[in-house]
Amino acid sequence: MPEVIFTGPAGRLEGRYQPAKEKNAPIAIVLHPHPRFGGTMNNQIVYQLFYMFVERGFTTLRFNFRGIGRSQGEFDHGSGELSDAAAALDWIQSIHPDSKETWVAGYSFGAWIGMQLLMRRPEIEGFFSVAPQPNTYDFAFLAPCPSSGLIIHGEKDRVAPPKDVQVLVDKLKSQKGIVITQKTMEGANHFFTDQTDALIGHCSEYLDQRLAGELSDPKLKRLR
């Protein structure tokens, strides 16, 4: 797993990158939790999501947002971090121009950034939004949400209460042209304490089903 340094809007960004064997393999980027609350690319959930994609033949990247680890710059309350994510996607796509499909996965703060990136990049075909915080961050930009994906959160999440996540899910499910899958994990908190393996298991099952075409309705087409 090579350590990489690439150019971001505020200076260099530090990442970990695993290329796939196939030139046209899909790309996945994984986004970490809030930088001000200890979030880094080495977060255990981010780390395991990274390897979930690697094990399925994706070209995969995780990286530190600005101001974290060896990444330059300072925390920018989401705007700059979205620019970092776009720069990360640009970088990996420049190395893998034959890749035709991209996925984004984000945890907590990273889920908010990932969903914003989804709106800006039509090549993103699928997403994982792990413990999103619609009670803290504005998700009104998802109008409409352009891709199908999984929203997974904990029943006992006090940081992002299930009732708030449910409002977001219900709004997205009402949109035509996409399929939003929701999983509420019984007994899980925002950090998935003692349930990380179960979380990754649910995510892996979803990804395997998507890759096999089991969750796609042939009548549904991605909105452009």
Automatic annotation (TrEMBL):
Keyword Magnesium: no
UniProt KW Phosphoprotein keyword: no
A molecular function GO annotation: hydrolase activity
Pfam families xref list: Peptidase_S15 (PF02129)
Region forming the signal peptide: none
UniProt keyword list: Hydrolase
Residue span(s) of domain Xaa-Pro dipeptidyl-peptidase-like: 17-138
Superkingdom of origin organism: Bacteria
UniProt protein name: Alpha/beta fold hydrolase
Organism annotation: Fulvimarina endophytica
